[in-house]
Amino acid sequence: MRNKWKKKRLLSILVAAVMIIGLFPNTAFANTEKTAANESDLTQAISEASDQTTIKLTDSFTLNDTITIADGKNIILDLNGKQISTPKQITVNGKLTIKDSGTNGKIDGSVGSMIVLNSTGTLNLQSGVIQTTKYGTIKTGKGSTFNMSGGSVIGDGAIYASNGTINITAGKVGLTDGSTKKSINNTSATITIGTSGGTSKEDPWIDGLAIGANKTASLYSGYITSTSGTFAVGTIFNCVFGSDISNSLPAGKMCVKENDVFVVQELTEESDAAAKIGDTLYSSTTVAAKALTEEQTLVLLKDVTVNTSSAAITISVPNTKLDLNGHNVTNTHEQGTGILMKTNYNTKKDVVANVQNSGSEQSTVKAAIPLSFSSGDSHYAMNINMSGDIALESSTGQNIKLGTAAQLVYSESAAAAVGN
Question: pTM of the full predicted structure?
Fold first, then answer.
């Protein structure tokens, strides 16, 4: 009897709850639908939006003034196969979702940082094309979020990742014709490309990622044509690449070609490494040189051959040692340097630069200027020590360039190198 009474009471409570909920508008899921045939319609619809509002374009038009999605606004812009041309910026402080229920829907700009996401701003791109002829189709600020699950972002540098969070699970991030930049240019953003556990090697498609200096990223799936900068330890490398990205990899990683793409693998054998510092292996001498700290030795494990107007190997840390280890350094550029060792102005002390060959075979440094040394401050000396069998071959007749406060310490190796 008591159980029957309890069941009736519970049923009564549930019925009452349903009736009470029915008395209130369903604001949590409300969606207002409006249309826009011109700029005035669009700005008015945005201004009047008090809940989630879908604005569907019914014609193409040009923006003659800036647009702002205020904090608290939740706008869904349906391009509906139409085009918005804009020489003005769109600022997002609230939430903006862009989709295209038609075909060929586009926001086409001629202004840099076309869509700016501020600290409270979120942009979701589901479909459609967002592009500008300038740098930064989208600029993400601190605290902002850009989610891309489809569509295309195109620009002369499509995404300026100044800060914030960027999640790209599908779609294309590309460059305007003739651009020499990367499509994503990172400063301090948290970047995720692809989906955890994803297996696609084509989607999302990224036309270049400039990751910045020693930055992490989660690259779960998809295709990235090229990279610049250096990834930090902890980066996830499960996507594929269109080129060898060894010069962007941290210690313990290497890039190998599999069929027509490049993949990142663990680097565990010296035979696969380009250089080492202590027991730490690097697939790139350039990255290893940047990782050097004072009193450490960079040991070459392979020959270095480049064609650059700068140096094949640049070391900017004081009191370090470069061990050629029986390997050669070649820079084929007519104005290139082989090895450059320098310090900056803030070093504020006398320093020592060491170049040695501990290997059993002669090491040759070949360039317009094989060796170049310079102290960053004329008040502090750079003393250069050379040891081992080292040959210098210069295409200009200058084997060693001694810059500010640099002086070569006499040794048989130094005398032989200068006399080559």
Answer: 0.87
Q: Which three-class secondary structure state does DSSP give residue 413?
A: helix
CB 112 within 8 A of CB 85: no
CB contact set of 60 (below 8 Å; sequence gap of 6+): 82, 83, 84, 85
Beta strands in 308-418 (DSSP E): 311-315, 320-323, 329-331, 337-342, 351-356, 363-367, 369-374, 382-387, 390-394, 400-402, 406-408
Cα 162 to chain centroid distance, Å, stands at 10
- From the DSSP assignment, how many helices (H) and strands (E) are in the chain? 4, 42
CA distance 80 to 58: 7
Per-10-residue mean pLDDT of the chain, 420 residues long, equals 49 47 50 96 96 97 97 97 98 98 97 97 98 97 98 97 98 96 97 95 97 96 98 96 97 96 97 97 96 97 98 97 98 98 92 97 98 94 96 96 94 80
305: β partners: 330
